[in-house]
Amino acid sequence: MKIGYARVSTQDQNLELQIDALKKDGCEKIFKETGSGKNKERPGLRELMEHLRANDTVVVWKLDRLGRSLKDLIDLVGEFEAKGANFVSLNDRIDTSTPAGKFVFNVFASLAEFEREIIRERTVAGLAAARVRGRNGGRPEGLSPEALNKANSAFLLFQSGEKTVKEISKELGISRATCYRYIEAAKSMKKI
Q1: What is the DSSP string of the chain?
Q2: Which of 4, 64, 78, 164 has a 20 to 30 Å separation from 145 between CA atoms?
Q3: How far apart are CA 172 and CA 157, in angstroms?
Q4: Catalytic residues
Q5: How far is the C-alpha of 154 from the C-alpha of 178, rounded, in Å?
Q6: Per residue in 33-44, pLDDT tens?
Q7: What is the pLDDT of residue 75?
Q8: Closest Cα to residue 157, out of 177, 182, 192, 191?
Q9: Which residue ranges make up each domain of the chain?
Q10: How far is CA 29 from the centre of its chain?
């Protein structure tokens, strides 16, 4: 069975062009969606995945209607293949039921993996170069001077037993979770 998927980003856009092309290609069922392609949790796409069976073919008007990034596209097509289904993009002339279509998608997957590896290598090299210069990545250890003052205040107020954590956090303008964290930090500093 050919199953179409049509998506537009906003209510102002029109699905008719995509739907006409999908019907012309022989899609028996079409899932429609309005929303960003960045969002992986799309109701129409989820419904399509639940409906998908072995030997079905998912058809889209254009690749960017299915996903916004190469990684997302590869992941989705991988999910289709795991269910025994094929994928066709009409305007991009990709059909994973053919050897040429599978080849094109494998090239895409290889390029995406290569890109991830290059980014990882650059990140590792950048962190190593920063360490040589005496800089470490990430958030600095310990509390800032302002946070340290609030931690000491929170600890003293808590230790006195006159106020609850909720009252202390309100007075200091911090969340209750931060208040607990500050109290523990100040308590551990007092032990040193």
Answers
A1: -EEEEEEESSTTS-SHHHHHHHHHTT-SEEEEEES-TT-S--HHHHHHHHH--TT-EEEESSHHHH-SSHHHHHHHHHHHHHTT-EEEETTTTEETTSHHHHHHHHHHHHHHHHHHHHHHHHHHHHHHHHHHTT---SSPSS--HHHHHHHHHHHHHHHHTSS-HHHHHHHHT--HHHHHHHHHHHHHHHH-
A2: 164
A3: 11
A4: 9
A5: 10
A6: 988 766 777 899
A7: 87
A8: 182
A9: 2-100, 145-187
A10: 28
Using N-to-C axis directions, what is the helix angle for 165-172 and 145-160, rounded to 10°?
150
CA–CA separation, 47 and 81 (whole Å) = 17
* Residue for token pair 């003293």: 156
Two structure tokens written together for 124: 């590792």
Local confidence band at 18 (pLDDT 50, 70, 90 cut-offs): very high
List of residues 6+ apart from 77 with CB closer than 8 A? 87, 96, 105
Nearest to 181 by CA among 135, 146, 145, 143: 143
